[in-house]
Design a protein that fits this description.
Blueprint: H1 2-30, H2 34-39, H3 43-54, E1 64-69, H4 76-92, E2 95-100, H5 107-119, E3 124-127, H6 136-144, E4 148-152, E5 162-165, H7 168-185, E6 191-197, H8 203-215, E7 221-223, E8 227-228, H9 233-245, E9 250-253, H10 256-268, E10 274-278, H11 282-289, E11 295-299, H12 301-317, E12 325-327, E13 330-333, H13 335-338
Parallel strand pairs: 1-2, 1-3, 3-4, 4-5, 5-12, 6-7, 6-8, 6-9, 9-10, 10-11
Antiparallel strand pairs: 11-13
């Protein structure tokens, strides 16, 4: 009896074991090959993984790093470019923005700032080139490392994603026309005209000078050889003093520092010389108000900074840039218009 019971129990146990084994095999057959699918991704999955790896920082939730490099850090013009860029970065959000600039207009210092920006992990560099040839090689190197280049105010001789600047030749011609009107109003129908520029290699101011000279073509005035003050107000004033001693009836300053120097020289000489310049600052506005300067071509540096920031972020994200060559315009400032 006990043996019959034991036999029954043993048979029941064997049947249960067989059923359990069959169930496990059926589950294994029905389950997906998890190991195989993990080891062998489809081409579409490979492409998606590649796209994720190549996606810009902004798409992965990281901040887009944009660095502004200007000609120097002292001119109010560059302070305004920085202000426009900073304000737009705050509006866009998710932007890590920094302004890096030499303490003076110097090619070597600007090249160093570009190298520092690349080493700092910049996704995009907004730059106003001090010398279009001197800075080209280092910008080419930055581009080869994936950095997007945006020009504000003054381009270099290498292609960028976009350029936001004044039509400098047209604005220079307007400056010349303003001086002609003022000279004629003062009864000075001929005489010597001096020009104070930054350097022969600065593209933006070279174009301003070319436009200014064009305005005097066919006139009785003699445009003297250009003198260079490196954008420094004190050096520019010394040059303007020499022009005044030489009997000039008019002097043109091609940028902020040059214009301040020209205005101060005319003020120191007690007037009598027509001064016209470029850019807008508190010092320049004061010189216009007291009559030391007749007119000034005011650019829109804040617009350059704003539009440059928009373009920089779009370029990093791989988005289209609405306009890639933009004339940001000028306004003629005189005693009447600023009041």
């Amino acid at each position: 009896m006990k043996r019959k019971v034991l036999s029954v129990l043993l048979c029941a146990g064997m049947i249960a074991t067989m059923l359990a084994g069959c169930g496990q095999k059926n589950e294994e057959a029905a389950a997906p090959a998890a190991d195989d699918s993990t080891a062998k991704e489809s081409p579409a999955a490979d492409a998606a993984a590649s796209d994720d790896a190549a996606a810009p920082a902004a798409d992965s939730g990281e901040k887009v790093k944009v660095i502004l490099i200007t000609m120097d850090s002292s001119d109010q013009h560059w302070v305004s470019v920085d202000k426009g860029a900073k304000e737009e970065a705050e509006v866009l959000g998710n932007v890590d923005y920094k302004w890096m600039a030499p303490d003076k207009k110097d090619d070597a210092q600007q090249i160093e700032r570009v190298n520092n920006a690349v080493a700092d992990g910049a996704d995009a560099i907004m730059i106003a080139a001090n010398g279009p040839d001197a800075i080209t090689a280092v910008l080419e190197d930055a581009k080869s490392q994936g950095v997007k280049i945006i020009y504000v105010d003054s381009p270099a001789n290498t292609e960028a994603e976009a350029t936001f600047s004044t039509d400098n030749k047209a604005a220079g011609k307007t400056a010349g026309e303003e001086m002609l009107k003022a000279l004629e109003a003062a009864g000075k129908k001929d005489g010597k005209i001096g020009i104070v520029n930054i350097s022969a290699s600065t593209d933006s101011t070279a174009n301003r000078e070319a436009g200014f000279r064009e305005a005097f073509e066919g006139s009785a005035y003699e445009i003297l050889e250009t003198q260079y003050g490196e954008g420094d107000a004190a050096k520019s004033q010394d040059i303007a003093d020499n022009y005044i001693t030489d009997g000039c009836v008019g002097i043109f300053g091609c940028n902020e520092g040059a214009t301040v120097g020209v205005g101060n020289a005319i003020k120191g000489a007690g007037g009598g010389v027509i001064g016209v310049g470029f850019d807008k600052s508190d010092a320049i506005l004061g010189l216009i108000k007291d009559g030391s300067l007749v007119a000034c071509m005011a650019q829109n540096p804040d617009v350059m900074g704003k539009m440059g920031m928009d373009a920089a972020v779009a370029a990093v994200k791989g988005e289209p840039i609405a306009e890639t060559q933009v004339d940001t315009g000028v306004s003629v400032l005189t005693k009447d218009t600023i009041q």
